[in-house]
Amino acid sequence: MALVDLHVAELGALEEMARRDSSLRRIDPRAKLVTTLVFILTVVSFGIYELAALLPLLLYPVVLLSLGDLPTGYILRKVALVSPFAILVGIFNPLLDHSPHLIVGDFHVSGGWISFASILLRFVLTVSAALILIASTGVHHLALALQRLGAPSAFVMQLLFLYRYLFVLTQEALRTVRAITLRSVDRKAMSMKTYAHFLGSLLLRTLDRAQRIHVAMRCRGYDGSVRLLNTLQFRAADALFIALWCAYFLAIRFGNVPHRIGELVMGVFT
């Protein structure tokens, strides 16, 4: 339970990071959101065996980590935390695909291992970019950016409530589990009957909490819109941020940069 408490606290640390002043923090959330979406589309557009072509895209999260003054270790830990899902998706590729795709000395690397590595690299690129976006912007500003970009209001509010009440639900569950644990000192694990009582109690507590929060929001003038004290201002620097990164992504996608660098290096040494 202490481990769950720790992960919830670390998840909340993303919002704390988003309040820090930095070069990346001052860029308009809409510019960062659009650039990150283009980056993710670029990553997923490559073929499953195009591993080397993805490597230049590592520059994007590296530069953003530096501009945002974000802790690299924290982002990598969060990526590693959810990496089993990506491993599960690609772990069977080496067993099913034995076609040779790369020769290194006397070793033949099968297409299954290359596609497995490609899946892991895509996962690291996309998840780290999404985490950096949240850590440098904050969920509330992202929701406002989505609303200003024309996303359906119902979708934006559902996304905002999902993130907000993830903490509320987790805290309610932890409080209930802690109470059950204190009342059953001699038992090391909860029985199925206790689990059933726990889920029922959690459902009733959640409904009661949701009704109280809804009434409080209505009393404070909630009308279904995202409202923040800081308004968004799109400047020339934000447009330049989008233009430069999109130009870089297009050059990587259609320019085959690793192949050209390889030809350049071979030309120098031959």
Question: Which class best fits the helix and strand makeup?
Answer: mainly alpha
Taking the alpha carbons of the first and last residues, their distance comes to: 61 Å
Major β-sheet strand ordering:
1-2
Largest sheet: 2 strands, antiparallel
Radius of gyration based on Cα positions: 23 Å
What form results from the Cα inertia axes? flat
Q: How many alpha or pi helices?
A: 11
Instruction: Output mean pLDDT.
Output: 83
Oligomer: single chain
Share of helix, binned: over 70%
- How much strand? under 5%
Beta strand count: 2
Order of helices and strands: HHHHHEEHHHHHH
Could you name the ranges where pLDDT drops below 50 across 5 or more consecutive residues?
A: none
Please render the helix and strand layout as text.
Elements: H1 2-18, H2 29-45, H3 59-68, H4 72-90, H5 93-96, E1 100-104, E2 107-110, H6 111-137, H7 139-148, H8 153-183, H9 192-219, H10 236-255, H11 257-269
Antiparallel strand pairs: 1-2
Helix pairs in contact: 1-6, 2-6, 2-10, 3-6, 4-6, 7-8, 8-9
